Amino acid sequence: MKKNWKLKLGLLLVLAANMAHADDSTEDRIAKLQKLLEEQQWQMKAMADELKALQQKPTVVTSEKDGIGLKSSDGDFGIKLHGLVQVDERDIQADDGATAGSGTTHGWLVRKARPWIEGSLFGWIDYKLTPEFATTTSNVATVKSGTTTVSGSSTLGTPEVIDAYFDAKFQPWLKLRVGKFKPFVGLARLQADTDGKFLEHSFVTANLLPQRDVGAAIHGDLFEGKLNYAVGYSNGVIDGGDQSVALDNNNDKEISARVFAQPFKGNGGALANLGVGIAGTSIDQIGTATSSQLPAFRSFGQLNFYSYNTGSFADGRRTRLSPQAYYYYGPFGLLTEYASESQDISNGAHHAKLENDAWQATFSWLLTGEEASYGSVKPKQPFNPNSSGWGAWEIVARVSEMDIDHDAFTGKVAATRFADISKSARTAKAWGIGLNWYLNNYTRFALDFEETQFDGGGLGSKVSASSGAITKLVDREDERAMIGRLQLSF
After folding, report:
1. 55, 77, 93 — which closes off a domain?
2. How far is 173 from 151, CA to CA, in rounded Å?
3. Are 45 and 61 contained in the same domain?
């Protein structure tokens, strides 16, 4: 019995020791497993961070749409480099408005030289910055008052900022644009600078509607792009003007608004590319005798045919209204718009509300069968001297007219008249034809001819000192302009 008791006690002690040792081994294994799991979690996190970094690593972009640049693989961040160069050869015969007979200008001109960058931030903010280096062109829009010489007005060639803005895209129907940009007003002006059918804008775009301005605009698309709207608040610019980036000295600001509808967009029918709209602006524009805030009006050849007299200045409300439309079907295209403007103006004790208007219609036909559109032309077969590709060929035609308020020329006292009928025309009518050759998506050669006829503006025109009415009207000689251009853009 004693032996059995001792044996049993020994077995219990051995079993207890084994159990204690087993418990220690289990705890160690659990601890090791926990440590291993933590290491694996850290490694997985490191791998996830590395994968995210690789996804955000910028990639080089070289494409027709994006130009040359960098962007993240998810597309949320990017920067693109673009460029535009236009070189013209011009032959212009025109009346200089100062002496009898005609003047002639002939030569080469760098019309535009614009590198620009654009891109995106966080996937919902777009930006654009465009400098212009070719600012030696005659009668650029920043000139507030022009001359009546055949060469027009000119700047000294100082580079300027054309675009400098950002777009915050909260929703397709709610976007905010802030900076210097094209106001949402003119239909032809809102086309890309590379896509206009003619080499110079019509009377509507060049002489009455704003070119660029500094301010802010809310805009967006509704009903899957069938309706576009915009409301702007900006410094305000003279007719055809390009606001500098300097601080505006006019306390009042310009309100602009535009609605444009494409009611049949996306249905694939004959009216799918029909668009109609209306836009307008309003501001209380106040100038002085030394800073008129008034424009000079120019022709297709960029020569002044109308200037306000010294001492005339904007002195009150200016409003613009512009109905507009386009239609494209197959190779056919039509873009048309009208603009009317009323402007309070003073010269000494003489005050009046002048009303000027202009209209234009531009027709186009793609001879090589491409689809016409408001955007750029993309040749089916780019030109290649070693193959049968000849690019895209397009013929264009345009008619336009501008009418100046006849009250601008009348008045008993010559010193207080707003304009001189012997130097400035009261009506300009133009017709033009052109040929565009799109060698590829980046290169275009164009040749335009336009003739402009004037009502008044010639030496010998007279205003009665007793009645203040025009008693003799001599027309300025017709202007004939031939412009050839080679354009490279990417």
Report:
1. 55
2. 46
3. no
